[in-house]
Amino acid sequence: MTKAKIKKDHLKLIFDRLKTSHRIIGPKVEGNVIVLAEIADLRDIPAGCKEQQGRGTYRLGKNSSQLSVASSQIFSFSVGPDSFKRFMSPPVRENFAFKKSKKGISISQNSSQVREISTAFIGMRACDIAALRLLDKVFLEGPVKDAGYDSLRRNSLIVGINCLYPGDNCFCSSMDTGPVIRDGFDMAVTELDDSFLLEIGTVRGREILNGLPIDEVSDKDLSEKVSKIEKCKKMIKKSIKVSELPWLIYRNLEHPRWADVAGRCLACGNCTQVCPTCFCNSSYDNLQLSGISKKLPELSGARIRTWDSCFSTNFARVHGGNFRPSRRARYRQWMSHKLAYWIDQFGSPGCVGCGRCITWCPVGIDITQELEALHAR
Amino acid sequence: MKRPRIGVFKFTSCDGCQLTILNMEDEILDILELFDIAYFREATDKPLRGQFDISIVEGSISTDWQKEDIVDIRERSRHLITIGACATSGGLQALRNWASLSSYKKHVYPSPDMITALSTSTPISDHVYVDYELWGCPINKDALSETLISFLIGKRPGIPRYSLCMECKRHGIPCILVSNGEPCLGPITKAGCGALCTSFERPCYGCFGPKDDANIESLMRYFHNLGLTQKDCISLLDKMNSYAYRKVRIEGSK
To answer: Same structural domain for residues B41 and B126?
Structure first.
């Protein structure tokens, strides 16, 4: 069995099954935004909501006829600011605790840091799953494995959902990462008119369905999925010509557009924080006054790792200064890493086309437009 | 180890940052064990005497005699740290830097003639060399303890210079600027407060001053597009860090 079908009402059965053995992370409304958070009840999912995303704007609303979302649709919304990154490579994490004395330094790892509770991610999109695969390359496939990421990653179960209503800033189809989920899932769900089509990716995905009332999948169901995905692709408005990368950027490292974007860029780092693949982080030693002994150098503390951003002036600071003192240099670094250096480094662009950096940039800088502008001489 | 001598000094300010020290209830005993608080009028009546390893200065310079006092304090100090918006950027009282002193005096005091003050309120760094500046209105107590520790063990204080947005995103706070069009100063303001206002769905009003390389002009253009007038935009910046924001804005437009 690789495919099955359940009635719309039976989604709750899957949810309840998962809940017995997993912490469930999924889409939930907080403030006026759909975030990813722990959900206790299937009703937490903002069924039928549709947001309008623009350059630097996000407005959540109940869907209306003008948004042309079918009234029975549950997964009608698109991605919010959060992605897997928040959970697999958490924003703040203790790497280890240390104690320094005359005898030397002793290091201890807090075992409770490594969360052994299995986590089920429900409602993840194709772009996010593609981004997770990129994070795997960074954290797991390099010379050194990131132990924390590894354990969180292995304890996760991924229930993806095929996008049928893309966001206004999406361009996954041109990055070849969506809207349909092709791999990297335990279960992939497509919301048909009166049922859910389930595709099983792993044994763990299949086990969820054990004993649940499932139906056979007909050819009609599969063609309904294909036509819905095609319809979604047509709704995607933005694109990037991947075939031009990385050379469009390498040829234009001194293009006047970089200075133009630096005039608008706030260097606030929002794009990097919402990006599902931006993995940069910094470490610092957290010392408390109580951990310092009058008999210096005796002291104790913890090494903390936090998300950082190439837009921070301190990020590329070394003895003597920063390699990239201007916003022009920092914006160029960010975009060039995403769309050019990443290809050399990891074999594919570091962008999955989720459009988050466009929506959550306070001044609405659009990476697809900035790239396009490099064509102009 | 001899405990480093600390002096806490105050100029024109509300005392809130000094109170932050007294509010460090969990740390105060550790501070007393590690440091010798040799002068701190808010807490003790020890007279001003001798030299200090670390001088902690609150408040801005806004009278003639303060200009002389700060030079004296600097001469007595191995290290000088300023704490708070007043000492680091002139404070709310620096609003008079863009207006006439007499008009402010007239509005505030019944007998303005009795008030002797400079026509400007300026940060400590305009007068003497400052070793380290702690921003905030008031300062964050964790940042102060990090700074004291850093002086004690000889490291650079790890205090953020990036935007408040970074702190919001770490905490997972939904952005009210993007999702609600609220004029929030987060993108141009230093992190460090723990995203206090934004976690209550209130826009940031810039207690921690301009972040490194703040692009104020671009954010103001955006606010203007939201429907704010030029005057609204300026009054957003004209708070406790007015002097610093205006300075960065002028330098940025050059």
So the answer is: yes
**In angstroms, what separates the C-alpha of B157 from chain A's closest C-alpha?**
10
Task: Report yes or no: B198 at the A interface, CB cutoff 8 Å.
Answer: no
If you ran DSSP here, which 8-state letter would residue A339 be given? I
Residue with the bigger pLDDT between B25 and A66: it is: B25
Closest Cβ opposite residue B187 in set A60, A285, A362: A362
If asked whether residues B128 and B35 sit together in one domain, one would say: yes
* pLDDT tens-digit series, residues A75-107: 999 999 999 999 999 999 999 999 988 889 999
CATH number at residue B105: 3.40.50.700
Q: Are residues B104 and B201 in the same domain?
A: no
How far from B169 is each of B65, B186, B187, CA to CA, in Å? 45, 11, 12
Q: In which domain, by residue range, is B128 found?
A: 5-153
Residue B108 lies in a domain: yes
Of B106, B129, B153, which residue is a domain's last?
A: B153
Cβ distance B175 to A270 less than 8 Å, yes or no, reads yes
Q: Give yes or no for a contact between B8 and B40, defined as CB atoms under 8 angstroms apart.
A: yes
Beta-carbon separation of A269 and B163 below 8 A? yes
Q: What is the pLDDT of residue A67?
A: 52
Which helix (DSSP H) or strand (DSSP E) does residue B177 occupy?
Answer: helix B176-180
Helix (H, G, I), strand (E, B) or coil at A96: strand
Residue with tokens 């205090």: B159
